[in-house]
Design goal:
With about 230 residues, the protein is of the alpha+beta class. It has one domain: Inorganic Pyrophosphatase (Alpha-Beta Complex). Helices cover about 30% and strands about 25% of the residues. It has 5 helices and 10 strands. Strand 2 and strand 3 form a beta hairpin. The relative contact order is 0.17.
Length: about 230
């Protein structure tokens, strides 16, 4: 155990953690989570994490006049897999074709403070979410508030979020991929849910991540084993 702690400290000093795999969802997750911000409301291009390198890359220019209304990113060490897809089917009555979208859990973070650029971490308190379905994929958008935010930090459930802001979030996600001439719409929001449902959705995404990538707390032991194997 001491060797693993020493290896962990050494790696932390030498290398920057991967935003998806190297940062925990938070000690108090799912009630309070870490959120890695990929896009801020003033971004004229859509940034997205390059999963292999851990760097932000330009996914595409924002095609139309719609900009993200809030900070937008994902919760580290989460994955929308079987359990998230199952929850979507259970709550919406959709058939077995609906599955998790294979990405980290998306999160929108409400704050009254502007941010000049993306690529940073915040502590956020989930208060609800949008049960979004993109094609046949569950693509939930957790709605959270920045911890201790002056304007939004008191909010505990989505019912306390201004209706106009929730409407703006729904409009953004329903239209940001949609060409004007396209019909029918491929993206839909099947439900707007509160805090308890958001916590369950996040917890399932944490379990989906661990099922696919293994337990993060066991990685240093596995790395030490591999290093010892190489030496011999």
């Amino acid at each position: 155990m001491a060797e693993e702690k020493g290896l962990e400290r050494l790696l932390a000093l030498m290398f920057q953690a991967h935003p998806w795999h190297g940062i925990p969802p938070g000690r108090e997750a799912p009630r309070v989570v870490n959120a890695y911000v990929e896009i801020v409301p003033t971004d004229a291009v859509k940034y997205e994490l390059d999963k292999a390198s851990g760097h932000l890359r330009v996914d595409r220019p924002q095609r139309f006049s719609s900009f993200p209304p809030t900070l937008y990113g994902f919760i580290p060490q989460t994955f929308c897999g079987d359990l998230v897809g199952e929850l979507c089917r259970e709550t919406t009555g959709r058939g077995a074709a609906v599955r998790g979208d294979g990405d980290p859990m998306d999160v929108c973070v409400l704050t009254e403070r502007p941010a000049a650029h993306a690529g940073f971490l915040v502590r956020a308190v989930p208060v609800g979410g949008l049960r979004m379905i993109d094609g046949n994929e569950a693509d939930d958008k957790i709605i959270a508030v920045l911890e201790n935010d002056v304007a939004y930090g008191h909010i505990e459930d989505i019912r306390q979020v201004p209706t106009g802001l929730v409407d703006r979030l729904q409009h953004y996600f329903l239209t940001y991929k949609q060409l004007p001439q396209e019909s029918p719409r491929r993206v839909e929001i099947a439900d707007v849910y509160g805090r308890d449902a958001a916590l369950e959705t996040i917890q399932r995404s944490i379990e989906d991540y661990r099922a696919l990538f293994g337990a993060p707390e066991e990685r240093f032991a596995e790395l030490r084993r591999l290093l010892n194997t190489t030496e011999t």
